[in-house]
Amino acid sequence: MAAVLVALSGCGAPASPGAGGSASPTVSPGASDSTASPGAGSQKATDSPASATASGSATLPAGWKTFTTSDGKLSFDLPAEWSIKDPAGAVPQGGGVFVEVRNPAGKSMATLRTNMVTGAECTTKQPYGMLDSEPLPALKQSGSTPRFTFESRQDNTATDPAKMTVLAYGITSSPEPTGPTACPIFHFFTWPPSGAMFGGVYNPFDTTPGNPPNVDTPEAYMGTPEYKNIRAMITSLRPAS
Predict the structure, then answer these.
(1) How far is the C-alpha of 241 from the C-alpha of 239, rounded, in Å?
(2) Angle CA 17–139–181, to nearest 5
(3) Which of 106, 121, 137, 239 qualifies as a FRET site for 56, CA 20 to 30 Å off?
(4) SS3 for 64?
(5) CA distance 66 to 58
(6) Per-residue pLDDT for the chain (241 aa), expressed as one digit of tens each?
């Protein structure tokens, strides 16, 4: 599986999982993309006390903290020992945020970006797997409710076992695929003024420090505390109160 995923679909564009320990992005086969170029400028965000909760987060787990983006528009919860790099890179000239969440070993858990402009065409579909899915009504926009998903795409043309399967988790506004094949993974969701992303990549071939031991399948990974924490963090994303 590729060490890093670029998410694409019939109406989306790639997004890097962020800086800090991530490889350069590679485009999924069969898709063309178009993304607005980020400009200079950065914004600084702050952590809220663990007791600070907002709509969409019913109960803050013990030992967790709440993070609110520097523009005051979004909040999410995360384990207290995880850190946030803000900004994780250049943000669009028109504004937006770009933050990366890391575990104590420095491994990237997920990145959040807003004010993203996307556009792509799906030219090749691949066998897919939907491992996990949950609607996120707190992020509903214009009658559309995005979903948290953990999904896979299979490249039957690849000869390297590490590149045969792409696995990623994140929030998407795309309809759930039907039938045996689907466009490349599209982890972008509708958010003013255009779109946003909050997600990351699962790489069972990654042996760098900080990974759960003895995990080599997505099903096994879903049972780890790391995945459960990532899932709880991403699904806690909501408009800041």
Answers:
(1) 6
(2) 60
(3) 106
(4) strand
(5) 12
(6) 333 333 433 333 333 333 333 332 222 323 333 333 333 333 333 344 333 333 345 578 889 999 999 999 999 999 999 999 999 888 777 789 999 999 999 999 999 999 988 766 787 899 999 999 999 999 999 889 999 999 999 998 888 888 899 999 999 999 888 889 999 999 999 999 989 999 999 998 888 888 888 788 899 999 999 999 999 999 999 999 7
3-state secondary structure of 57: coil
Q: Which of 109, 82, 110, 85 minimizes the C-alpha distance to 99?
A: 85
The CA R_g of the chain, rounded to the nearest whole Å, is 17
For residue 115, the SS3 value is strand
- Return the ∠ at Cα 192 (arms to 187 and 197), rounded to 5°: 20
